[in-house]
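Bug: token stream looks shifted between consecutive jobs. Job 1:
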Amino acid sequence: MHKEAKKALDFVLKGQLDSGAFPQRYDAKGNDASYKPIQIDGTGLIIYSFTKYVLAVNNEKFLDMNWHKIQKAVNYIKQNFHEDKNLIYTPNSIHEFPPMERGLEIWANSVCCAAIKELCEVTKKYKKNNREWAELTHQIQSGIEKYLWNSRVNYFIKVIRIKESSSVDIDIDASQLALCEFGIISDNDKRMKSTIKKMEKDLWNKQLGGLCRYHKYEGRNNGGWGPWPHFTLMLCRHFIRLKNKKKADKCLDWVLKIAYKGMLPEHISTVSEFEEYVTDFTEAGLLRKDRLILIGNARKHPMFKKGIAYITIPLAWPHAEFIITWNLYKKVF
């Protein structure tokens, strides 16, 4: 679907900020609609998608037309390179929770490393001279393996915080999936396998099934704590790549089970945990207009009467992940 891919890239590339970064989110007209700190992994994802498209269709004209924007985006990532640890500093990342993100975070580093690696393939093919990019990917890769692997707990950790406080968050977290998802660490690597084993043990929801993003923390909630189909699908792909059909089926069966009339939500939650979120955010005065809409939609959904809150349904992201997963599943099995 190359026409649709180009349309998406045209849209996001026009919204590049003066810094070289791309916004956390856009409005329908392509304007910056962010309401949280910049997410550097978003810039990495756009570079990654751009290179995948150019290599897939051999569109050198599109490459040349946007090359200055891509260079500017890479320079933004380089400006956030932490030389002491050979890692990218992350103002905010996939979970949109700065106390757990602001620092040297694993998802953002994996995405940015993979993006620049893919870009190096473009520079080879089209003879663009940027040899320092290859060195940058090597540095980030080595930084991930040296500093984000914890031998005591035997899995890759979430983040090293270096500014507001010097601390290490070693909790298992769905963002560690980025390591195998973006090819930073092989699925067969024993470190990746031990990380996934811990993820299954701690984050598979014992009541609802499916993979949660993180442990349940008091005070950290957005629509009720619970499992997410897109992270469950990423976990599924790890098992598919390992040809572990039994575990892949477990993940895929769960996603199909919770799909409501062919639609997938952002995540689901028990009604009781959803109402915990409503109470906490109401009493703290944090219910913006969009959150009131989210609450109203969840309560009106037919599954709410059955004890399950469906949050933001349908959401494009899990549907895209399902397409990727289903195609891979068919290819392997």
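Job 2, same session, no restart:
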Amino acid sequence: MASREIRGVWITTTDSTVLNSKANIDEAMEFLAKTGFNVVFPVVWNQAATQYPSQVMRKTFGVEINSACIGRDPLAEVIEAAHAVGLKVIPWFEYGFASSYNLGGGMLLTKKPEWAARDLQGNLLKKNGFEWLNALDPNVQDFMSNLVLEVVKNYDVDGIQGDDRLPAFPCEGGYDKTTVKLYHSSFGKNPPSNPKDQHWLQWRADILTQFWRRLHQQIKAVNPNLIVAVSPNIHDWAFKEYLQDTPTWLRQGIVDMINPQIYRRDFNSYKSILDTTCQQFPSALPRVAPGILIKLGSYIISPKLLIQTLEYNRSCGMNGEVLFFYEGLRVNNNQLAKVLQKHFYNQSAMFPTISDFSQTNIGNQSIAWWQRLQRFFGNL
């Protein structure tokens, strides 16, 4: 019987041509299946556009799909090609609550200026080049939920994935009039001017968690077998900088699979982050499969580092990995794909089912397992 583990890869629109045509998609899915992968994470939301015809976007912004995809449905093409070769498909909502990148808010905030997030000075919220929608605004949350639910209701997907922008919000945000008024009504005072005040951080993070809990429930109401995944940054940096409260998500059971972005370019840095996992989880971790950086710009992970990283994952009981991103597998005559096929993916493995994610290797001690997993993310 084939083993079960997560062998995933992200499919991007940046620095990639996979989604440019049905022929490219078909070839990529066949290549991944042959290499030994069992799940793909195609981007469906970035740069203020979807990679599928969206009625939510059409009604809200008058733009139905990424202009490069007019007349096509790349998501449907990925699903058809992937399922034909046995790959699961979990669409990835890359931009989340980000409205644009170095565009002053872009089309979304041009048409919906009232949805803009604000910093302490009242400026449009911007961090690391990204401008942000107000993720604390119920109307913005409803829009994002509707996008996700549109996908799960209309497509034969196997789940959905958020990331370091979903659910997320830069800690410098929350100073818009509506959020300030809500905070004042609760505590009789305005929010602290220090964006990293612990209570202020937690209060805003709790709003994001409540949003994700509702969305999780709505997704499961459509199909309880759908995987709800998140690829957050590393806690607690992600909590302090982007209000991502991973321990609470895990404790509340509102994520099925978590793919923390352990994007490190040397083994010791990667190892140091996983060491706590090895100490606290001697058994396998059915929900955790780290995100590994294999390509970014001119950077390509070396075969040696990739082998070291995956070997260490397995020695620590990790349940697989998700690689960022597909094009890295094709560099140097498919060098990294050949490494995987030879060393790690030479025998087939089935992608876990929802029941696999709900179980652990420690019998019925699920509460203790959640507590250990919470401590792990809290100690990183």
